[in-house]
Amino acid sequence: MKIKRREFILSSVSAALYAANIPAWAQGSDTPRKGGTLTVLLNSEPTALLSVANVATPILSVSAKVTEGLLKYAPDLTPEPQLATHWSISPDGKTYEFKLRKDVTWHDGKPFTSADVAFSIETLKKIHPRGRSTYANLTSIETPDPYTAILKLSRPAPYLLRAFIATESPIIPRHLYEGTDAVSNPHTSAPIGTGPFVFKEWVRGSHLRYVRNPNYWDPPKPNVDELIVRFVPDLGASEIAFETGAADLGYRTPFPLSDGDRIRQVKSLRVETAGSTYNYNVSSIDFNLDNPYFKDLRVRQAVAHAIDRNVIVKVVAFGVGQVCYSPIAPGLKEFNDPTPTPYPFDLARANALLDEAGLRHGADGVRFSVPLDFNPISSEGARLADYMRSALSRIGIAVQIRSQDASTFIKRIYTDRDFAFSTNGSSNLFDPTVGVQRLYWSKNFIKGVPFSNATHYSNPRVDQLLEAAAVENDKQKRIEYFKAFQEIVAHELPNLNLYQPLFLTVANQRVRNEVLTADGVEANLADVYLDPAST
């Protein structure tokens, strides 16, 4: 049977996998059960437990269990109360006022106040990978009383109301961070928050353990007594853990995509696509523009002509994704430019460009050799690196793949800049100003800040377009700014945007309410409960 092309390109395997999905928020009984231990699997161990200065996926997976945001968001991105109960925006878009919950305490017993909010957001503006752009227009934060925080902006920020989620803008305790380096502060790896779970231990290489916060401001939540987060980098081992019931919950496709059809047939498991509307991703190849080879546009163009995105979606993503030519994901439909790349698959043109660049074939057929680092956080990283090695060998570029753990990869790319090019994946989040600008804005080239401008791309016109879009309240004008930006980077190729992956969540049938919000499993899991009758 011929499969129809829809929003996502689905292989015959994945089409069957998603056809019968029922949204998680429509499941479960009216009265959540109390107690039990929820076991969550992560494919990579986090390098920290708080997303104040690093937004790597493993950190996002656990940060919000302890530290919360001012708001949370429904699947359609409608804002809902969390630490803030009410909020308002001035007609000119330059004043945001939040009324905060009263009688909220930090896990160490200290009271939560507006001073914590002001300190947290000021810290995020300085050190968060996206904070410099997200809060670029923030000039001051007023705290007229302990339960009011007023953000003053120099210019409008039309995206800002959706930026106050726990993973993106975590509220941290001022009394534990003030006067310290937030990155190296010990509480970044042993967090104290206001959330439903209290951090207890981090056994390196094994697991994290959290316990129920008995003083949580939203009683009687959380519903489970204990949360265990295990690190299982081998997807085959993860698959076994889910099938045997040793694991309850995993997200971002915690099993081999090639086994999707079989996993869908396991009666004790539920596979779903919900809970990803806050985090559309784009997988890419990022060039180091300071590299002696890749600083030449002709070499980057040759690499672009040597790859076939449709093949990548098929063999790397097993059909679970959509071809993407733009830094803005197709999921952000109003902003994404679907115009095909100006450098289509064309090996003859690729070879001609390398000849023009003076990179001739040697006696062994190799023009030059170059290392390729892949991001190990994603299971597709290694497969994409293998594809690139094979594809580039056809035009005389010899690729040596370097593998490393996540912390080493991040240090190599963003601190040491000891790389030529890399496979990577970046979240667009809910708006290009927040998720995309950080990757192309010259002012966000900051050594040591993960998932910032790794390519060292700099174009004054691109900076102007991104900065204009960040403050433009007219939606159509914003779209025009972003379209112009996409056209420029499509030709200049600081990186190669390849496809938008579709992430899958796996849950044991006994797990309920695991995906109620736009961020899915990355949320605080306060509503999750275990229903033994459904096992």
Blueprint of the fold:
Layout: H1 12-18, E1 37-42, H2 57-63, E2 71-73, E3 79-81, E4 84-89, E5 95-100, H3 114-127, H4 131-134, E6 138-145, E7 148-153, H5 174-177, E8 197-203, E9 207-212, E10 226-231, H6 235-244, E11 249-250, H7 260-264, E12 269-272, E13 280-287, H8 297-305, H9 309-315, E14 321-323, H10 347-356, E15 368-374, H11 380-393, E16 397-402, H12 406-416, E17 421-429, H13 432-435, H14 437-440, H15 460-471, H16 475-492, E18 495-501, E19 505-508, E20 511-512, E21 529-530
Parallel strand pairs: 1-10, 1-11, 15-16, 15-17
Antiparallel strand pairs: 2-3, 4-5, 5-7, 6-7, 8-9, 9-10, 11-19, 12-19, 13-17, 13-18, 14-18, 20-21
Helix pairs in contact: 8-10, 15-16
Number of E-type strands: 21
Write out the strand line-up for the largest beta sheet, numbering strands in chain order.
8-9-10-1-11-19-12
Proportion of helical residues: 25-40%
CA(first)-CA(last) distance: 34 Å
- CATH superfamily label of the domain at 280-501: Dipeptide-binding Protein, Domain 3
Note the overall shape: globular
Unreliable runs: 1-29
- What's the architecture of the domain at 280-501 in CATH terms? Roll
Give the overall pLDDT as a whole number. 91
Query: In CATH's first tier, which class of the domain at 280-501 applies?
Result: Alpha Beta
Question: Radius of gyration in whole Å, from Cα?
Answer: 23 Å
Q: Mind summarizing the main beta sheet?
A: 7 strands, mixed
CATH topology of the domain at 280-501: Dipeptide-binding Protein, domain 3
Number of helices: 16
User: By helix and strand content, what is the structural category?
Assistant: alpha+beta
